[in-house]
Design a protein that fits this description.
The complex is a heterotrimer of chains A (189), B (192) and C (195).
Chain A lengths: L9 E4 L3 H11 L3 H7 L9 H14 L5 E8 L5 E10 L4 E8 L9 H15 L5 E7 L3 H10 L2 E12 L2 E11 H11 L2
Parallel strand pairs in A: 4-5
Antiparallel strand pairs in A: 1-2, 2-3, 3-4, 5-7, 6-7
Chain B lengths: L13 E4 L6 H9 L2 H7 L9 H18 L3 E7 L5 E11 L4 E8 L9 H16 L4 E7 L3 H9 L3 E12 L2 E11 H5 L5
Parallel strand pairs in B: 4-5
Antiparallel strand pairs in B: 1-2, 2-3, 3-4, 5-7, 6-7
Helix pairs in contact in B: 1-3
Chain C lengths: L9 E4 L3 H11 L3 H7 L9 H13 L5 E8 L5 E11 L4 E8 L9 H15 L5 E7 L3 H10 L2 E12 L2 E11 H9 L10
Parallel strand pairs in C: 4-5
Antiparallel strand pairs in C: 1-2, 2-3, 3-4, 5-7, 6-7
Helix pairs in contact in C: 1-3, 4-5
Classes of the chains: A alpha+beta (189), B alpha+beta (192), C alpha+beta (195).
Chain lengths: 189, 192, 195
């Protein structure tokens, strides 16, 4: 049986609330990281608030509509980011969002490895029919990474985001189960 | 043979014990990071859990044990060093009908195939039949869990139900079996 | 497209906790009904107490848990209840449980009609791939009804129940989407979008 939580560069796990809060506080100060990852205005939350939010999540327990992973590098066991899946259970669709907070790990294949592991999990464990995601037009690195994983560009909502006085588009991508399975037979992973 | 002095929670290499809220969460958290273990143990999607969440789960579990009175939970520890190696449960007990369901898991792969599972199941069955006075016990296990199926059959469990294609994993569908063991079947077995 | 929750004799509708708790409390007095429905005896609760947990049920409607009233088409009378709970999302398998509390509607095809409506809802609306149920050995009427709806026998838990001085088996039955589609491809009047 394959290890669903281990990729080639990273592994999925779940950090303790304190660890998570400390890193998150640092990462949210990085406006570029935030603007690539999110559409909401950049905001600064205290470590206490973040930790409390995380502890509340722990209290409520797992929901079958939401799956969340912390990401660590295999080499250094360093906590570099996270990945989340939101399920539409009725239509068997999962939305994915990921972020690498540690800048020195950008542009080195870590994001692609995270997404590859995520797709394996989505199709072999959650057994969804498709995985979807949205990204900003101004994030070409992510677009390239996702295309490498097999996502297809499906649409674009024009000028729905405004930042630094400029209007930009959101891009929408998707990958179907059949497409992913076909890729596996060639790729081996 | 049965007598009051029989130790219900003691076996050759392992013993049953309560939850250690300080030490156990971290160990059980590690088990949840092993997707193979989780897929053998649960039908719901495997997912890594933090020690903080495990701690909360323990609290909910002990509350449930207190309130519902239809559940018994044991932590399994190695006798030599008191190390946590697994967990065992008798659950969904219906007292009027005398039935319950068993769950058993040895967390670390290197601890399996050492006979701990056999010892744990033996103790669990003795507890269910000789202490809780249940009439039958059941166990739900996935078609691909050959280890569990072999262990259950060793103890005389009979496959009673096949829920066809109830699960999907690794791109194919699997059956979910229900195994059952009746008290007199258990009693009539040669005991080691 | 026909209303997916309407059958030939009954329709499934949202339940009103106040109405349902009154009916449910009355049905609970019929011990034959309770023994057919429940594996363990339930205490006889007041309308007030039943209403309380039903209100809680109403709040917990989610994609995994469904609860309906069963009403007759002819008189719009509340005759029973139905619950559907998804157990494995990977396999898209859900447990169904139903009870017709108004005994004058037994053995008249109402149970089968309810199940047909439910299966269509399960397979075409919630996109499930299988539906599972348990039924007691001493309930041949229900067993027959489920067989008619297409459920197949999948085994039984031996001597699961202890009632009236003897032990009884609890039967498991299941139906896969492919099986249901095949059954219904011959039946007129049921549109299966996409297949």
């Amino acid at each position: 049986m394959k290890d669903l939580f281990r990729g080639e560069l990273i592994r999925f796990m779940l950090e303790e609330p304190e660890t998570y809060a400390k890193a998150e506080v640092r990462w949210q100060r990085d406006t570029e990281f935030h603007r690539l990852a999110d559409g909401d205005p950049a905001q600064l939350n205290s470590e206490k608030k973040i930790r409390e939010w995380f502890e509340k999540q722990s209290e409520e327990g797992f929901k079958s509509q939401r799956y969340f992973f912390s990401v660590r590098t295999l080499a250094e066991e360093k906590f570099i980011g996270h990945l989340g899946l939101w399920m539409d259970l009725i239509h068997s669709e999962a939305w994915v969002g990921l972020g690498i907070g540690e800048r020195e790990f950008w542009g080195k294949g870590y994001g692609t490895d995270m997404m590859k592991l995520c797709l394996q999990y989505a199709f072999l464990e959650l057994c969804v029919a498709r995985v979807s995601l949205g990204l900003h037009e101004y994030n070409p690195r992510a677009l390239k990474s996702y295309e490498k994983c097999g996502f297809r560009l499906e649409g674009r909502t024009r000028q729905d985001v405004m930042r630094e006085g400029k209007r930009t588009d959101s891009l929408w991508m998707g990958i179907l189960r059949e497409e992913w399975l076909l890729r596996q037979n060639g790729d081996g992973r | 043979m049965f007598d009051i002095q029989t130790q219900l929670f003691d076996s050759q290499d392992i013993r049953f014990g309560p939850i250690d809220h300080e030490k156990d969460p971290e160990i059980e958290s590690k088990w949840t990071h092993d997707s193979e273990f989780m897929r053998l143990m649960e039908t719901s999607p495997a997912r890594p859990t933090s020690a903080a969440m495990i701690k909360k789960q323990y609290e909910k579990l002990e509350k449930q044990i207190d309130e519902n009175k239809n559940l018994y939970h044991f932590m399994i520890r190695a006798k030599e060093d008191d190390r946590l190696i697994g967990k065992a449960t008798v659950q969904w007990i219906e007292w009027a009908n005398g039935n319950g369901f068993l769950r058993l898991g040895i967390g670390a792969a290197e601890d399996r195939c050492k006979g701990y599972g056999t010892q744990a199941l033996s103790m669990l069955l003795r507890f269910a039949f000789a202490e809780l006075n249940l009439f039958r016990v059941g166990a739900i296990v996935a078609e691909y869990n050959s280890g569990a199926i072999a262990l259950l059959k060793k103890f005389g469990f009979v496959q009673e139900v096949c829920r066809r294609q109830s699960l999907e994993r690794d791109g194919r569908r699997w059956d979910l079996y229900i195994f059952g063991l009746l008290k007199d079947e258990w009693q009539n077995q040669p005991r080691s | 497209m026909k209303d997916v929750l309407t059958g030939k004799l009954v329709r499934l509708s949202a339940f009103d906790p106040e109405e349902m708790s009154k009916a449910f409390t009355r049905w609970s007095l019929n011990s034959e009904y309770m023994r057919l429905l429940n594996s363990s005896a339930r205490p006889l609760q007041s309308v007030k107490s039943n209403a309380k947990w039903m209100e809680k049920e109403a709040e917990e409607i989610s994609p995994e848990s469904y609860y309906f009233s069963i009403r007759t088409l002819a008189e719009d009378k509340l005759i029973g209840e139905l619950g559907l709970d998804v157990v494995t999302w990977s396999g898209r398998d859900a447990f169904v449980g139903l009870g017709i509390g108004e005994t004058e509607y037994w053995s008249k095809g109402y149970g089968t009609d309810v199940m047909n409506v439910l299966l269509r809802y399960a397979f075409t609306e919630i996109n499930l791939r299988r539906v599972t149920l348990t039924v007691f050995e001493y309930n041949p009427r229900a067993i027959r009804s489920y067989e008619k709806a297409g459920f197949r026998h999948e085994g039984h838990m031996r001597n699961y129940l202890n009632r009236a001085g003897r032990r009884w088996n609890e039967l498991y039955m299941g139906i896969l989407r492919e099986e249901w589609l095949e059954l219904n491809s011959q039946a007129p009047g049921i549109a299966i979008p996409g297949g």
